[in-house]
Amino acid sequence: MQKQRAEFESFADGRVRICRPGEGEAFVTLDFGEERVGVTRYYQALNADVHIVRVIHIPQRRDVEANFLAEIVGDRFIIKEAQHKNDTLPRTTVLALAEM
Q1: Is residue 70 part of a domain?
Q2: Three-class SS state of 9
Q3: CA–CA distances in Å: residue 20 to residues 9, 32, 58, 88, 91
Q4: How far is CA 53 from CA 37, 40, 62, 84, in A?
Q5: What H or E segment, with its residue span, contains residue 39?
Q6: Residue 4: inside a domain, yes or no?
Q7: Number of folded domains in the chain?
Q8: Any idea what the CATH number is for the domain that residue 37 is in?
Q9: Pairwise CA distance, residues 26 & 88, whole Å
Q10: How far apart are CA 48 and CA 9, in angstroms?
Q11: Residue 23: its pLDDT value, please?
Q12: Which three-class secondary structure state does DSSP give residue 46?
């Protein structure tokens, strides 16, 4: 059985400010990497009346959850999904962002 190698992730696409719902101050500011919005994720979100406009990954933060707010260069998004990946180096959290 062949062992699968961990995928290396970079965080060179920008910085994201993350806020808890109802709070104006940033909970945390992190570097992020951009991902493409996959077809499956896109259509599943549409079926739930959610329009995912961006998907990013950040260094793994299990305290970042759905319904937190994300701000990238003045654009504000709501985090609709946070998935924690342990098969990457370093471990990451993938955030699906919807328009506010």
Answers
A1: yes
A2: coil
A3: 25, 18, 16, 26, 22
A4: 7, 13, 22, 19
A5: helix 39-47
A6: no
A7: 1
A8: 2.40.10.270
A9: 26
A10: 29
A11: 86
A12: helix
Residue 47 counted as domain residue = yes
pLDDT in tens, the chain (100 residues): 556 677 788 999 999 999 999 887 888 999 999 988 766 655 665 656 677 889 999 999 999 999 999 999 999 999 999 999 999 999 999 999 998 8
**pLDDT (0 to 100) of residue 52:** 85
| Whether 31 contacts 60, CB under 8 Å | no
Q: Write down the pLDDT at residue 38.
A: 65
Token pair of 89 as six digits: 């180096």
Decide if 18 contacts 65 (C-beta within 8 A): no
User: What integer pLDDT is reported at residue 40 of this predicted model?
Assistant: 65
In a domain, residue 62? The reply is yes
Chain-centre distance of CA 2, in angstroms?
A: 30
Structural domain including 83 reads 10-99
The greatest distance separating any two alpha carbons of the chain, rounded to the nearest whole angstrom, comes to 50
Does pTM surpass 0.90?
no
Q: Which pLDDT belongs to residue 4?
A: 67
